[in-house]
Design brief:
Layout (H helix, E strand, L loop, with lengths): L1 H7 L1 H11 L1 H24 L4 H15 L9 H15 L12 H12 L2 H22 L13 H90 L1 H30 L2 H4 L9 H10 L3 E7 L8 H21 L5 E8 L3 E8 L3 H8 L3 H12 L3 E6 L5 E8 L4
C-alpha cells in the first residue's frame, strides 16, 4: 500500500526531496546553467581573437558558476557576479546569456540575505542597469550621431533593466516575508507542542497525586476497620459466635465498599467511562462512615448544626468526606480501646466547619509511630478550596481535627 501511494503521488516525493535538499538543487541548476552559458558565448562573440574569446568565456563563467552555491554564500556570490559584470563593460554592447544571473541573485539576496545585503544587492542591480545602458549606447561613441532616438532608446533600456531588477527584488522580498512568517508559525507550533507536553505531564502528575491520596484514604480506612473487626471477631468467637458472625459481615461490607472505590480509581487509569461516572462520596455518605466506625467498636457521636446557605462543589464535599474518614481511621488506629469520638458538622454563613475529636491516646501514638501523611494529605485537600485544616492534641487529652471549607463565591 505504501508503494502504491508513492507511485500515485510522485510529485510529492519530488517536491519533498527538493525542499529537503536546497543546496543540491542549487548545485545542479547552477551547473546546468553554466554549461549552457559558457559554450553559448562562442556564437555571440562572433569573429573575435582567441584571447578575447577566452576573456568572454571567463566572464561568462564568473557570472554563472557561482550560482551553484548561491544559497550557501549569497553575499560572496553576489560580489563575484557583480565583478564579472564589471569586467564585461570592457566589451561595449555585448550581451551574454549569463547576465540572467543578475535577477537571480537579486531575488536570492532578497529572500535569504540580511536586510542590508538585500538593499545593497538592489542598489548594485540598479547601478548595473545604468552601466549596462551606457555600455550599449555609449554617448561618447555616438556623439556625432544625429539620431534623435538615442536618448529615448537609452531611457527605454534603463527602465527595462531597472524594472527587471526591481521585480526580481520585489518577488524575493515577498518570498522572504512568507518564509519568515512560516518560520514563525513553525516555531509557534513547536512551542505550543512543548507546552502541551508539559501540561500533559503536569496533569498526569497531579492525577497521580490525586489517585495516591484517594488510595491512601480508601486503603488506610478500610484496612483499619477490617483489622479491628477481625480482632474483635476472633475474641468473640469463643464466647458468642453470633457477635463474630455480625462482625465478619461488617468486615465483608467494608471490604466490598473499598473494592468498589478501588475499581473506580483503576477505571480512571483505564479510562473506563462506566466506572468513572460512578458518584463520588459526598457529605451524605458521612453517616455511613460513622456507622462503620461504630460497628468497629468505637463510640461515635455525630451531630449536624445549621443549614447550608448554598451547596459546596462536589470536590469540596469529597474533601470533607475524606477528612472525616481519615480522622476516624486515626482514632481507630491510635486512640486505643474504650475511646470515644465526636463528629460535628456545623454550617455557618461563611461555609462548613468540621470538628472531629476523641478522648484517647491518639496524640502520643501518632507522634510515637511517625504518622502524619494522612494529616498532610488532608491539609493539601482543604487548601485546594481555600480552606484551613488544623490538627493536634487537646489540653484535656485526646486529639482533635478542625476543618473549615468556605463557600465558593461566584
Amino acid at each position: 500500500m505504501k508503494e502504491a501511494l508513492i507511485f500515485a503521488n510522485p510529485h510529492r516525493r519530488i517536491d519533498g526531496w527538493i525542499r529537503a535538499n536546497p543546496r543540491r538543487i542549487d548545485f545542479i541548476t547552477g551547473l546546468i546553467y553554466t554549461l549552457f552559458c559558457v559554450p553559448g558565448t562562442i556564437g555571440l562573440a562572433g569573429a573575435m581573437s582567441a584571447p578575447a574569446m577566452l576573456s568572454i568565456m571567463a566572464i561568462a563563467t564568473l557570472q554563472s558558476a557561482p550560482l551553484m552555491v548561491r544559497r550557501r554564500y549569497p553575499w560572496a556570490v553576489t560580489l563575484v557576479v557583480a565583478f564579472g559584470h564589471l569586467m564585461q563593460l570592457g566589451f561595449d554592447g555585448l550581451l551574454l546569456p549569463s547576465q540572467f544571473s543578475v535577477p537571480i541573485m537579486v531575488y536570492t539576496m532578497a529572500v535569504y540575505g540580511k536586510r542590508w545585503q538585500s538593499f545593497g544587492t538592489l542598489s548594485l542591480g540598479l547601478a548595473g542597469a545604468v552601466l549596462a545602458t551606457f555600455s550599449m549606447f555609449n554617448p561618447f561613441r555616438y556623439a556625432t550621431d544625429p539620431s534623435p532616438s538615442m536618448s529615448f532608446n537609452m531611457l527605454v533600456s534603463f527602465v527595462g533593466l531597472a524594472l527587471v531588477v526591481t521585480v526580481a527584488w520585489t518577488f524575493g522580498d515577498l518570498a522572504r516575508t512568507r518564509r519568515l512568517a512560516m518560520k514563525s508559525l513553525k516555531e509557534h507550533a513547536e512551542r505550543l507542542e512543548k507546552e502541551r507536553i508539559m501540561e500533559r505531564a503536569l496533569a498526569a502528575s497531579d492525577e497521580r497525586n490525586h489517585i495516591a491520596r484517594e488510595m491512601h484514604d480508601i486503603v488506610a480506612h478500610s484496612l483499619s476497620v477490617i483489622i479491628t473487626q477481625a480482632n474483635g471477631a476472633r475474641y468473640a468467637a469463643v464466647n458468642d459466635p453470633q457477635i463474630a458472625i455480625d462482625t465478619l459481615k461488617t468486615v465483608s461490607d467494608t471490604g466490598r465498599a473499598s473494592l468498589k472505590e478501588m475499581r473506580r480509581l483503576l477505571g480512571v487509569l483505564r479510562k473506563d467511562e462506566e466506572l468513572q461516572n460512578r458518584p463520588l462520596p459526598a457529605l451524605g455518605d458521612i453517616p455511613n462512615l460513622v456507622e462503620i466506625a461504630t460497628n468497629s467498636g468505637l463510640a461515635v457521636q455525630f451531630q449536624t448544626l445549621g443549614t447550608p446557605r448554598k451547596e459546596l462543589p462536589a470536590g469540596a464535599e469529597l474533601t470533607a468526606y475524606r477528612c472525616v474518614q481519615e480522622s476516624l481511621t486515626n482514632v481507630l488506629k491510635h486512640a486505643g480501646s474504650n475511646a470515644e469520638a465526636e463528629v460535628l458538622l456545623n454550617w455557618t454563613y461563611r461555609g462548613l466547619e468540621l470538628r472531629i475529636k476523641d478522648d484517647g491516646r491518639g496524640a502520643g501514638a501518632i507522634k510515637l509511630e511517625g504518622a502524619g501523611q494522612g494529616l498532610q494529605g488532608m491539609k493539601e485537600r482543604v487548601a485546594l478550596y481555600e480552606g484551613t485544616c488544623t490538627a493536634g492534641p487537646q489540653s484535656s487529652g485526646g486529639f482533635a481535627v478542625a476543618v473549615f471549607i468556605p463557600y465558593s463565591e461566584d
